[in-house]
Amino acid sequence: MINVTKAYLPDKEKYKQYIDEIYANGWLTNNGPLVRRLEKRLAEYLGVKNIVLVANGTAALEIAYRTLDIKGYAITTPFSFVATTSSLVTNNIKPIFADINPQTLNIDPFNIKKNITQNTSVIVPVHVFGNGCDVEAIEQIAKDNELKVIYDAAHAFDVQYKGQNILNYGDISVLSFHATKLFHTIEGGALIINDDNLVEKARYLINFGIENTESIPELGINAKMNEFEAAMGLCMLDDMSDVIQKRQAVYEQYQCELRDVVQLQEQNAHSTQNYSYFPIILKNEAQTLSIQKALNEQQIFPRRYFYPSLDTLTYIEPKQYSPVSRNISKRILALPIYAELDKKVQMIIIDIIRNNV
Ligand SMILES: Cc1ncc(COP(=O)(O)O)c(C=O)c1O
């Protein structure tokens, strides 16, 4: 069975050495030595100032809103994984959708501008499939309107924009380290915080708002990463250049074989790619479903990702309609891509697509 992705498992012996360390010191969670080691190594690897590791990407989004005291309305994209929007709703922030660019699949800055009102407090864009947003236009809009920017960078591990890590844009960027992601810690996530003064607050917020045994200054949640997860991250980090290189080969094979056959996501010319996803956009929903069925018959399972468009969620108030996102979400398939994807299987996938368009 071939799924859209396959979690990367690093060398078992190396992982066991970290587990031995955990058994020796008995420290399982609560800002343990491996979490701190991973934070330090990731900050160096990514070239970012402040990183706070957390239990998952969804918690990272929630902590970001709380760290910046976001209230009122957020302008966000309807074309994302549900957590981008549901995390706003659970924090009593109303999502207002700015429709996407149909080529880049990222939020369109022009639509952000159109939707700003006096109740808007934050912009929450997503670097969709690791494709860098128009960060400079978004920065300008935020500045002109005194808005915060929180990037959902769940897909954007190791993406550079004009020579520096894209995570350095915005007030906070949020990563997901779920097992299906390019870099993972089984479950996990991180906040990249650009204002040094906010880091301490975020650290209280991930630990129930507790400062020390005497003081609980913030309303927090439990969003701590544990030591076993950090151990996985430390192992993964050693292998990242190999993982990315192998994915790049898979990506380029698809690109070469399919670029004249189906629509591909237009990449930001100023940013690098991390090869974490390979979405194809088909003519219509019927063609999308028939290709999905043909692949499923060969035990190959691409994913309708992102589907459905988030403006169709029944719990969204006010009700909204984002035609571009709805249209794309009905005719997009994310193809299997991971370091060990067999070349022969990849050619079967390509042939099935070629024969069904
Ligand atoms: C764009 C996006 N945002 C947020 C998340 C949530 O991350 P997590 O699964 O780590 O909670 C995901 C996860 O798949 C995602 O793809």
Bound molecules: pyridoxal-5'-phosphate
Cα(first) to Cα(last) distance is 23 Å
CATH homologous superfamily (4th level) name of the largest domain = Type I PLP-dependent aspartate aminotransferase-like (Major domain)
- Tally of DSSP helical segments: 11
Strand content: 5-15%
Uncertain stretches of 5 or more adjacent residues: none
Tell me, rounded to a whole number, the average pLDDT.
97
Strand order of the largest sheet: 2-10-9-6-5-3-4
Structural class: alpha/beta
- CA-atom Rg in angstroms: 20 Å
Largest sheet: 7 strands, mixed
Helicity level: 25-40%
Which CATH top level class of the largest domain fits?
A: Alpha Beta
- SSE series: EHHEHEHEHEHEEEEEHHEEHEHEH
Q: Tell me the number of strands.
A: 14
CATH architecture classification of the largest domain:
3-Layer(aba) Sandwich
Shape: globular
CATH topology assignment of the largest domain: Aspartate Aminotransferase, domain 2
- In total, the number of domains comes to 2
Structural account:
With 357 residues, the chain is α/β, with parallel strands linked by helices. It folds into 2 domains: 2-234, 3-Layer(aba) Sandwich (Aspartate Aminotransferase, domain 2), CATH 3.40.640.10; 240-356, Aspartate Aminotransferase, domain 1 (Alpha-Beta Complex), CATH 3.90.1150. Helices cover 39% and strands 13% of the residues. It is built from 11 helices and 14 strands. It has helices at 12-25, 33-46, 57-67, 82-90, 109-115, 135-145, 199-205, 227-258, 285-297, 323-330, 343-356, and strands at residues 2-3, 51-54, 73-76, 94-97, 120-124, 148-152, 160-161, 164-165, 172-176, 189-193, 263-264, 279-281, 300-301, 332-334. The strands form 4 sheets. A 7-stranded mixed sheet has the order 2-10-9-6-5-3-4, sandwiched between helices. Strands 11-12-14 form a 3-stranded antiparallel sheet. Helix 6 (135-145) links the parallel strand 5 and strand 6 (148-152). It is globular and about 65 Å long. The chain starts with a strand and ends with a helix. Bound molecules: pyridoxal-5'-phosphate. Pyridoxal-5'-phosphate (PLP) binds at residues 56-58, 80-81, 83-84, 126, 152, 154-155, 176, 178, 189. Pyridoxal-5'-phosphate binds at residues 56-58, 80-81, 83-84, 126, 152, 154-155, 176, 178, 189.
